[in-house]
Amino acid sequence: MGMSVGGKRGIVSEMNVVPLIDILLVLLVIFMMIPRDTKGLDALIPQPSTEKVLEPPPDVVVIQVFADGTLRINQEPVTFDRLGARIEEIFKQRATHVAFIRGDQPVEFGVVAKVIDVMHTSGIASVGLLTPDLEKAF
Fold first, then answer.
1. Were both Cys, which of 2, 36, 39, 87 would link to 122 (CB 3.0–4.6 Å)?
2. pTM confidence score
């Protein structure tokens, strides 16, 4: 939009609509290319598992710490003194050194921390914690 002052014809007060027509044509092409009934892709949202897994697979090592101080490795009772040696026996033939700890609700954290310390000194690279509330969610 411009207005020229002076010149042969004097003051011109007409609007220059050529740039507006260019913008109109660009918008027309854009809206012609966009389909009217756009439909997105179907999203596959992960759903929680409905089946309960009672026993861990044989590859997984789960150390259970009970409220009375007893320990179990994959449902096999073990004493606290023998825990380190038993863990070393289990992981001697395994390539991955990953284990999980499942604690009862009233177990103090100090007991679980001692078990984690024994696991680290026995060569466990990664320790996961399992809780009853977390297992109910899955």
1. 87
2. 0.53
